[in-house]
Design goal:
The complex is a heterodimer. Chain A is built from seven helices and eight strands. By secondary structure, chain A is of the alpha+beta class. In chain A, the strands form four sheets. In chain A, strands 1-8 form a two-stranded antiparallel ribbon. In chain A, strands 2-3 form a two-stranded antiparallel ribbon. In chain A, a hairpin with a 7-residue loop joins β2 and β3. The longest helix of chain A is centred in the last third of the chain and has 15 residues. By secondary structure, chain B is mainly α. Chain B has a domain of 25 residues. Chain B contains three helices and no strands. The longest helix of chain B has 16 residues. The chains are: A alpha+beta, B mainly alpha. The interface between A and B is large, with 42 and 36 residues.
Chain lengths: 207, 75
């Protein structure tokens, strides 16, 4: 199996924000925290493009590199997760992440910054699969139930694809071939370490 | 008497010490294919057996193609 990956197809995303809603509902994400957001570039201008952004579960994750307490780990499936019992809420990961994935809930009387929260690819955390402790800290563990992230599974236009990297790439490749344009995926090169991927075609004919 | 006082003082001071700060590190996480056990497993997707890595991987691949590739669905 390849690594678990997300891809958002900017040609299809209609900025409906249902991925954001699905994530919040499925994982009971606290107020003020958005594990996933839809970003629109050139909003209101003809040709505007939207993409759904969350943790990209980077192959060479900068959050993992800068964490002073080493709370991050990577699962066998390539999902980047973290241990909230180890996290000290320092926020270094937030500065390191190019996608703005790490979120910090405000807790306590003075709105003190809590422990980091981010997309888990619906794979929970280090607690026992499906346990109450896992749900309360990290949300649902759909992966261990043989399911895929809720955001990707309910996307009405299938703009957001999530799953085994090989299958995701296969679906996207087929789609690009069928429509004949839109091969560039924003953020791909940053997340997956390829300088070539995610760049517009050199001749600039299509898309 | 003197020894008793030293022993008592030592015992009393122990309570003022720091807690041990050995790092437990990151907890190990069970692989996904080991699945959910207990009452929660009623939510497991059908078509694969918990603990079978190959079946789990195949289930995820099939689910991705069936649910997210509409070119398969409109054939």
């Amino acid at each position: 199996m390849a690594r678990m990956k997300f891809v958002c197809d900017a040609e299809r995303c209609i900025e409906c924000n249902s991925c954001v809603t699905a994530c919040k509902n499925e994982n009971e994400v606290p107020w003020g925290v958005n594990r996933r957001r839809v970003v629109t570039l050139n909003d209101g201008v003809p040709g505007e493009k939207s993409i759904s952004v969350a943790c990209m579960h980077c192959s060479d994750a900068p959050c993992m590199a800068v964490c002073p307490v080493n709370c991050f780990y990577r699962t066998e499936e390539g999902v980047v997760l973290h241990d909230k019992d180890v996290c000290i809420g320092c926020g270094y990961c937030s500065y390191a992440c190019p996608f703005g994935a790490p979120q910090f809930p405000s807790k306590g009387t003075f709105g003190v910054r809590g422990k980091m929260d981010k997309c888990t690819f619906c794979a929970g955390g280090p607690e026992a699969h499906g346990s109450q402790a896992e749900f309360e800290k990290y949300g649902r563990n759909r992966l261990a139930e043989g399911k895929l992230p809720a955001c990707a599974e309910q996307c009405s236009t299938k703009a957001l694809i999530g799953g085994d990297g090989d299958v995701v790439a296969d679906i996207f490749r087929n789609r690009v071939v069928q429509r004949g344009k839109g091969a560039e995926v924003w953020g791909w090169g940053t997340a997956y370490g390829s300088k070539q991927a995610g760049q517009p075609p050199a001749n600039g004919v299509k898309s | 008497m003197r020894l008793t006082l030293i022993a008592a003082a030592t015992l009393a001071l122990v309570a003022c010490g720091d807690k041990q700060q050995t790092s437990a590190g990151v907890k190990s996480d069970a692989p996904g294919f080991e699945s959910v056990t207990g009452p929660g497993n009623v939510y497991n997707a059908p078509g694969w057996k918990a603990g079978d890595k190959t079946a789990w991987e195949q289930q995820l691949k099939t689910r991705t193609q069936a649910g997210q590739n509409e070119y398969n669905r409109v054939k």
